[in-house]
Amino acid sequence: MTERESLPTLVGVAALAFSVAYFVSDWGAFGYAAAYAFFSWTVVYPLIHDVADFDALGDVFGVWMSLGGATMVLSGLAFGWATIRAGMLPRWAAVALMVGVVLVAITQGAPEGAQLIGAGVRHLGFAGMGAALLAPGQAVRPQLG
Fold it and tell me: 94, 111, 125, 127: which could form a disulfide with 80 (CB 3.0–4.6 Å)?
């Protein structure tokens, strides 16, 4: 992907982040973002240091891995619920996010296929929210009732 081709993606991600934060205005969005930033570091760390596997990474971060995971689940649930309450983005996407964060947590240690399904459901929720914000000619409106 060239720099020119990646610009719409960058703008879309920024639009999603700022719009969701504006519409939701709940700690869930910010808590999820903080947990995601932490887990991004758990991806970068093994690229810099010699870490054999996920269990070894858990040994490096210790209790912080569990706290980060709990924050991600609770914040993801709060973010999804706030999105439903706000009625500005598709409810199905919020439900997919909520189900997905729980699936990601309960499939830790399961076969990779199960983990992939959990992450896929969570990503489907975010993709649905992003598509609602970026769809041409679509105005994001409250969903009443």
Answer: 94
